[in-house]
């Protein structure tokens, strides 16, 4: 199969798949960015306490954790393509409920549905990785993780345009974000095929061969090379295995626990930093959407692209572990600098978000690479579930019980340092290694 994927190269089909993966992966950052400014607004509108208001974000994050089982199994037993459409459809429904919520608890339910869908946002990313030649997998995957910049910037820009120019309502802002999952469903249904790696792992050789032929024609591969790719696609990359319980298999691997630690803590640090920055750029300290400096927030969010540029440059050499560990270290230093300034500190905030982006790129990339094809969907979904736990903890501490600013800084700093250590302890470097050859127990 690896030979077949290499012969297909990177063409029109991979570009379309890259677009879908970018759209769906960006949905998480859209939701987190929206929550950073909308939770205070809805708390005020529905007349609930700050602790009750934090329930919105906590529900989202816990629902993401709960979604790891259904979406993980869906990715491994139903396929990457169907899981992508399912996750996008569920999010679209959640946004509709949240935008029309007549009460605070219906709003919580709507965002809970959104959180559930976020457990499936890695399915198209896994599908893309399984369709990329080894030599291109690192840098192309970094481009997808950059969708967090697109999602964050889109959320803040939509908030500015809708709130300032169309309707001063958080409901309108929420509804506007439904454009992304709708587009993801349409493109996936019309263009994307199932992963031939996954089909082969399910002993569906004829279907895997058909997908390879379709991709070859889309990429205008030479007929002779198309035949060679189709023939190679029926040869398994690794010896067939029977894994009856993905969770039981994953529980025996050291990498699985390190990956979950990384995802939980870097997500806590990322969301915590997002909340800190949003609070700093609240111009009058009121729980009102109109009091946020959306222009400054958009600039800080867009600055994250520099972190992905850094990852793009170094993701193959020195490699994933270096990018993840160094990103966590820079985030730690920027956080301390941000805490020491009494001004808005837009440049320091931008550096923190940039470092967060580098860490995120490494975490997203290394998770699928350390897992075998037949449990890759479940393992990645579990990792994103632990990310939800980290986000929930940040929401509870920062919005719910409102711990002091010094405690916020300290908690994020600890998360950054532990993430750094976990990256260093990962079993091996996976740069330029074929997917299943990178597996380490």
TrEMBL record:
It is found in: Membrane. The keyword Nucleotidyltransferase does not apply. GO terms for cellular component: membrane. It is a multi-pass membrane protein. Keywords: Membrane, Transmembrane, Transmembrane helix, Transport. GO terms for molecular function: transmembrane transporter activity. Pfam families: Sugar_tr. The keyword ATP-binding does not apply. It comes from the Eukaryota. Residues 17-431 form the Major facilitator superfamily (MFS) profile domain. Its main location: membrane. The chain crosses the membrane at residues 12-35, 55-74, 86-105, 140-163, 169-192, 255-278, 290-315, 322-340, 346-367, 379-401, 407-426. This is Major facilitator superfamily (MFS) profile domain-containing protein. It comes from Chrysophaeum taylorii. The lineage of its organism: Eukaryota, Sar, Stramenopiles, Ochrophyta, Pelagophyceae.
